[in-house]
């Protein structure tokens, strides 16, 4: 996108005294003529760029307007670099790589050794063990569809195992609880929906385009759908001593109540197959006290599991 390239050029010029137009053209895979048009656009935006011809010439920001490299501290630059490296563990993107290079250009050479030490102190590998290349290819396709505002179609398998075709306007890729999701406007539901990438297959970007809708990602709209009052079921659990540690980790200490030597947990979740599986993972560490129908459902599922292993 042009705006990304313009911003990148400004950042590069902040970190370098001077750069060749050919160097910029090669970096962004455009023509030298396009670079000079970009420079004119940056000038019109109020950032004075000067060009000089001949040996030792190039493009630079006028000295008296040069931005201070200390606009971001070394620790802040290291934190951004670490975050980009970590995201790249599960999502390979050309933009992440070039962004890292731009950040490193802001670090003076004499401070590079200390900068690398800061960035190598932490690494958050958010990828799954043995993560398949198919997931990364799917993410790359969706990433490009979002950039170009192309409709996307795919076959989706929901929690209940029902399969159906979907036509959506892709808006945002979301990493939630170690899983990737697509937040998109569903043409079928005429509303935004959350789609787990692992449940999507036959994903394709269509030539038809859409007008991006206004979303406020800072409000975490998918959380509001999850916690919608009519979507929640109140559950009371008896927590056995062997399960208290696990219950604290999963529910939080605020959900636990101690009375007459017993520990109970009061929680609220949407009721579906995910909930039954979630409760079953506790094994004998918990007992469902309320509501009765969920207690019966989990008991029946446990019996079915036993039958599978007894036959």
UniProtKB/TrEMBL annotation:
Keywords: Transcription, Transcription regulation. Transmembrane segments: none annotated. Signal peptide: none annotated. InterPro entries: CBASS_pafABC_assoc_protein, DeoR_HTH, HTH_11, PafC-like, WCX_dom, WH-like_DNA-bd_sf, WH_DNA-bd_sf, WYL_dom. Residues 2-57 form the HTH deoR-type domain. One of its GO terms (molecular function) is DNA-binding transcription factor activity. Pfam families: HTH_11 (PF08279), WCX (PF25583), WYL (PF13280). This is HTH deoR-type domain-containing protein.
């Amino acid at each position: 996108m042009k705006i990304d390239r313009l911003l990148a050029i400004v950042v590069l010029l902040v970190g370098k005294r001077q750069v060749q137009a050919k160097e910029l053209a090669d970096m962004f895979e455009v023509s030298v003529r396009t670079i000079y048009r970009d420079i004119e656009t940056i000038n019109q935006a109020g950032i004075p760029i000067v060009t000089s011809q001949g040996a030792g010439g190039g493009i630079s920001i006028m000295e008296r307007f040069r931005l201070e490299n200390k606009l971001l501290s070394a620790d802040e630059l290291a934190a951004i670099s670490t975050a980009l490296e970590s995201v790249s563990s599960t999502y390979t993107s050309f933009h992440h790589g070039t962004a890292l290079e731009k950040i490193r250009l802001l670090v003076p050479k004499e401070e590079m050794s200390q900068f690398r030490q800061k960035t190598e102190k932490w690494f958050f590998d958010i990828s799954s063990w043995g993560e398949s290349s198919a997931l990364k290819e799917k993410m790359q396709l969706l990433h490009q569809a979002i950039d170009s505002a192309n409709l996307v179609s795919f076959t989706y398998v929901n929690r209940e195992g029902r399969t159906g075709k979907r036509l959506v306007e892709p808006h945002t890729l979301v990493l939630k609880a170690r899983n990737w999701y697509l937040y998109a406007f569903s043409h079928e539901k005429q509303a935004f929906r959350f789609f787990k990438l692992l449940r999507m297959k036959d994903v394709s970007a269509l030539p038809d385009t859409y007008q991006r809708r206004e979303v406020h990602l800072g409000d975490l709209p998918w959380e509001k759908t999850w916690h919608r009052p009519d979507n929640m079921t109140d559950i009371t659990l008896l927590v056995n001593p062997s399960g208290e540690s696990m219950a604290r980790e999963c529910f939080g200490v605020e959900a636990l109540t101690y009375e007459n030597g017993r520990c109970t947990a009061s929680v609220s979740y949407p009721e579906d197959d995910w909930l039954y599986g979630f409760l079953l993972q506790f094994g004998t560490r918990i007992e469902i006290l309320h509501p009765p129908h969920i207690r019966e459902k989990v008991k029946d599922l446990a019996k079915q599991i036993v039958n599978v292993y007894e036959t």
